[in-house]
Amino acid sequence: AQKRSPAPLPPGPKGWPIIGNVLDMPTTKPWLVFTKWGERWGHIIYLNLLGQPMVVLNSANMAVEMLDKKSSIYSDRPIFTMAGELAGWGSLIAFLHYGDSFREARRLLHQVMGTKKSMEVFMPMVEHQTHRFLNRVLSHPDNVQELIRWTAGAIILNLAYGYEVKEDNDEMVALVDKAMQQFSIITRPNAFLVDAFPMLRHVPSWFPGANFKRLATEYKKTLTDMVTLPFVYTKRQVAAGAAQPSFVSTHLENNQLTKEQEATIQRAAAALYTGGSDTTVSSIYTFFLAMCLYPEVQKNAQEEIDAVVGTDRLPSPADRERLPYIGALVKEVYRWHPVGPLGLPHRLMENDVHDGYFIPKGTIIIANIWNILHDENSYKNPMVFDPERFLSAPGKSPEQDPRTFSFGFGRRSCPGLNLAEASVFMSCAMVLSVFSITKAMNADGSVVTPSAEFEDGTVSHPKPFRCSIKPRSSKAEALIRSAE
Ligand code: HEM
Fold first, then answer.
1. Best of 329, 413, 414, 423 to mutate for ligand 1, by most ligand atoms within 8 A of CB?
2. Are 28 and 361 in contact (CB under 8 A)?
3. N or C: which end of the chain has fewer CB within 10 A?
């Protein structure tokens, strides 16, 4: 007799024999498609992709109950044949299977940035790099996205390797960017789904995914450079006694390392900047978009800064606790457009029965973070950018903190949270204190309203948009110029 499952599978689109739901899989904005499916199938949706079970979680409650509360069994990652094995990303933390190497890498990261306290030593550097950012924006206001990227790269390369980024055309930043663009492409949902099924390697080239086969070799070379070149730089600096304090130099200076330990540190450092370079970029660019579209919010934020910090100096990390509206604004940035709308996929390590449904071992679990953060039951008028939702007022309690979801779940939740928080807060507060962000104008005087569209990708960015960025006053301009 056939062995019976202890409970029914969760509901979901029916699919076809053998291939299951492969043809149902969205190729663009999957978070919106999964949200729509949620209206029909509910909070938990089951998909079968050529026999590979996959579950999409569409509610906060499901994601927390499964991925957070049952973290000991929901913390593996899927096998990414293309990205992980062929393109070489498999040895970096985000792809590691749940086990000893994973725990060791998380421990190393936690030591450096696991708490707000551990971040303190890096705050002067974050502040300094953000000052440089202000100066660059003043000179090139039309290049803001590129400047955000440059700054994020500078912060993370400094923290990981003690590497001071050059003003222009820095080859290390270019390398990180290239690798991250490739990372984003290769981990798109339809990419990794195809990757999960080696038999799809044989499909014709029009099939999404086949393209990745050709690209894998090229991507692997970029990745190898990204993991080794900055590490070699720090090693040389340490040998010459000239190293700036950093994640890598601290480990190299304090210990006599075996080859294997060295490799672990090399990969943990690479994880720092793979996780940290692109993500905060999306958040800070989203911030500029929101400020352009919501002038009232910008005005409120500037009033708070003027009242608390004044106009004689720039905000500093020490002001964070005293700027609740800016704190709420940063939360709203994370909510309004989550950097990772589907987070990263988890994989179930043993059979589970949840909420009356059978979830087989090996199921890939996707949390629809975008939908969770736009659920009308938790967030009123979810498409509107409104920091007030996170402030308490008489008779009104704040809405749920989006960081519970936007940084992922359980033992896989983002290890870079404290750095992200520090970087995003500093950028928002400093920019608001000295710049005014408004809609751009065409040559004929008509106003350009950005469309607030977001790109596909594991890390999703706002579509490039135009806005006008000017100093708030001549005093603000002088303040920017005096900062370094
Ligand atoms: C706004 C900024 C950021 C957001 C929204 C964000 C969000 C996330 C999310 C959703 C995940 C997946 C968690 C899961 O699987 O459940 C993740 C993982 C990760 N993040 Fe971040 N992140 C941010 C910044 C950073 C920074 C600055 C770093 C590095 C310093 C970083 C390093 C990582 C790493 C290494 C992982 C993989 C963790 C693992 O697989 O165990 N992230 N992040």
1. 414
2. no
3. N
Q: Is 467 annotated as a binding residue?
A: no
Indicate the residue type of 70. K
Helices (H) and strands (E) in the chain — how many of each? 18, 9
Whether domain 22-482 has CATH 1.10.630.10: yes
Crossing angle of helices 324-336 and 279-293, in 10° steps, is: 110
Classified as helix, coil or strand, 124 is helix
Instruction: Determine the average pLDDT of the residues in 109-133.
Output: 90
Q: Give pLDDT, residue 210.
A: 56
Closest CA to 112 of 235, 343, 277, 273: 273
Pick left, alpha or beta for residue 410 (phi over 0 → left; psi -120 to 50 → alpha; otherwise beta): left
Q: Which of 24-38, 130-144, 146-160, 167-181 has the highest mean pLDDT?
A: 130-144
Query: Are 114 and 413 a contacting pair, CB within 8 Å?
Result: no
Q: Is residue 413 within 6 Å of ligand 1 at its C-beta?
A: yes
Determine whether the shortest distance from the Cβ of 402 to ligand 1 is under 6 A.
Answer: no
Residue type, 85: E
What 315-322 contacts at long range (C-beta under 8 Å, 24+ apart), as own/partner pairs, is 315/426, 315/429, 315/430, 315/433, 316/127, 317/123, 317/126, 317/127, 317/422, 317/425, 317/426, 319/429, 320/425, 320/429
How many CB atoms sit inside 10 A of residue 470's CB?
Answer: 14
What share of residues in the chain are helix, strand, coil (percent, to 5)?
Answer: 55, 10, 35
Phi/psi zone of residue 445: left (φ > 0), alpha (ψ -120 to 50 degrees), beta? Answer: left
CB–CB of 442/448 below 8 Å? Answer: yes
Residue bearing tokens 């049952």: 70
| pLDDT > 70 fraction of the chain, expressed in percent and rounded | 93
Q: Is the CB of 53 under 6 A from ligand 1?
A: no
Judged against a pLDDT cut of 60, whether residue 448 lies above it is answered with yes
Token pair for 409: 């779940």
Q: How far apart are CA 364 and CA 76, in angstroms?
A: 9
